[in-house]
Write a structure and sequence with these properties.
about 45% helix; binds heme C; elongated; 2 strands; about 300 residues; two-stranded antiparallel sheet; mainly alpha
Length: about 300
């Protein structure tokens, strides 16, 4: 197997690929796409684009794959390069497997909220990352020792958030509620988002309910940020009603669904059978209001 011993051999390899594509001609769209990608890489290299020195321990196939995934990502479009994550800020040393700290400088809010939920709180306390082995809920056996980090849900090179919103969760969670999600109307709506880089606001993924979006004002702009605290909408139990369900459903429908244990277990695969009295609803809303005023 050929290894990229240094940045220089990587450069030579990319350059020779550009020449190969240029002489072969663009016979099919796939080849054309790869040629364009190679040209982009070559231009970046010619412009003296900072690349960390990949050690000989790095598998060239992985290097290729990472580069291809990154090329069309939101990061590449915003000039977030290999070195933005694979180089330590202070020592400039090459980092093969960057951790949370590599995201922190640019995504402070995501890191802060992640550390407050069940998924991240062990790390806030300085303990090792959470793994399914530590769980009380049923988990996928194959994921037993997978550590919870930013890169566990996010493919860090494509940063495609559609994959992160359902597939990643089901890589670990295997309780009845989670496994039933694919049978729901919500999942049908989400299927329409599969081709997007970002879930649309019209569909409901695991993340819609458990990592809800918030609109924030930054200067004169409104930006949407994801609350990565996965405990937040669970406590108190009806917080999810106002945070999530009422963006699309009425108050009565939402409360009747969320307090119906069987329906939660079935991941909302049918209209609610429960019928809370209007009186109970008013009281529930009243409790929420005084809670909010008090906090
Ligand atoms: C947004 C941050 C980020 C950017 C940008 C980034 N990487 Fe990575 N990369 C990571 C993280 C985090 C890991 C560790 C992945 C993991 O733990 O699964 C990683 C792992 C890798 C690996 C090892 C993969 C493996 O499975 O062993 C390679 C190779 C790699 N990156 C190459 C690149 C190249 C080449 C670029 C630029 C084209 C790049 N990365 C850009 C964050 C990034
Ligand atoms: C040098 C700054 C920088 C670093 C480091 C960085 N990002 Fe980003 N990231 C950005 C910018 C800029 C965007 C695009 C604008 C936005 O959505 O905020 C972005 C977007 C994203 C998105 C949203 C993609 C989308 O389709 O909307 C995710 C997910 C993401 N980053 C994850 C990570 C993770 C995980 C890490 C660490 C492994 C990381 N980023 C490191 C700057 C950075
Ligand atoms: C690396 C495996 C892993 C992945 C991926 C993962 N989780 Fe978890 N999650 C866990 C573990 C472990 C727990 C703790 C369960 C326990 O203690 O019984 C947990 C707990 C939870 C809880 C309960 C929180 C609480 O406070 O009780 C929710 C909700 C949750 N996860 C939702 C999600 C969603 C949604 C996704 C995808 C966006 C996801 N998880 C992805 C491993 C994972
Ligand atoms: C449990 C899975 C999971 C983990 C762990 C996770 N994310 Fe996310 N993240 C998501 C999902 C899903 C979305 C998109 C949700 C949506 O758009 O509805 C997202 C969205 C984002 C975005 C774009 C939206 C925004 O708020 O700017 C960024 C940036 C991001 N994550 C960074 C991170 C960083 C940094 C970490 C580590 C601290 C992290 N994520 C850990 C699942 C996860
Ligand atoms: C429409 C909203 C919604 C969707 C979609 C959804 N959930 Fe849930 N989830 C809930 C509600 C409500 C609860 C139960 C809260 C309670 O019992 O207090 C819950 C509970 C959980 C719990 C258990 C928490 C505990 O401590 O018992 C996990 C884990 C979880 N969900 C994961 C997922 C995963 C993974 C997906 C996607 C495959 C998903 N959920 C989809 C609303 C949703
Ligand atoms: C982004 C919008 C949206 C959000 C947020 C949302 N839903 Fe839905 N939900 C829908 C749509 C659309 C349907 C399908 C309605 C139909 O078939 O007529 C649906 C269907 C349902 C159904 C009936 C399923 C069936 O098979 O008939 C229940 C129950 C339900 N949602 C409960 C909830 C609960 C509880 C929440 C909050 C935890 C929630 N939904 C959040 C849009 C949403």
């Amino acid at each position: 197997m050929r290894l990229f011993a240094s940045y220089r051999t990587l450069k030579v390899s990319i350059m020779s690929r550009v020449l190969r594509f240029a002489s072969a001609g663009w016979r099919n769209p796939r080849q054309a796409r790869r040629a364009i990608a190679a040209l982009v890489m070559a231009m970046l290299l010619l412009l003296g684009w900072a690349t960390p020195a990949w050690g000989s321990g790095v598998d060239p196939a992985k290097l290729d794959e990472s580069t291809q995934l990154w090329q069309t990502s939101a990061h590449a479009l915003n000039n977030v390069n290999c070195s933005s994550c694979h180089q330590a800020d202070d020592t400039k040393a090459f980092v093969a497997q960057p951790g949370i700290e590599s995201c922190q400088s640019c995504h402070e809010q995501s890191v802060d909220t992640f550390l407050l939920g069940k998924h991240g709180i062990r790390q806030l306390e300085g303990a090792s990352p959470l793994t399914p082995a530590m769980a009380r809920l049923p988990m996928q056996v194959a994921a037993h020792d997978v550590q919870m980090n930013c890169s566990t849900c996010h493919d860090v090179h494509s940063v495609n958030t559609v994959q992160a919103a359902v597939d990643s969760c089901l890589g670990c969670h295997s309780d009845t509620h989670s496994l039933n999600y694919p049978n729901s109307r919500h999942a049908e709506l989400f299927a329409a988002d599969r081709s997007l880089p970002r879930p649309s606001a019209a569909s409901v993924s695991c993340a819609t309910c458990h990592l809800p979006r918030h609109e924030l004002k930054v200067g004169s702009d409104r930006v949407t940020q994801v609350n990565h605290n996965n405990t937040y909408t669970l406590l108190p139990r009806d917080r999810m009603v106002q945070e999530v369900c009422m963006n699309c459903h009425g108050v009565e429908y939402s409360y009747n669904s969320i307090f119906d244990d069987d329906l939660v277990e079935a991941n909302f695969d049918a209209p609610p059978a429960l019928s809370l009295e209007t009186f109970d609803l008013v009281r529930a809303l009243e409790v929420r209001r005084t809670d909010q005023e008090g906090s």
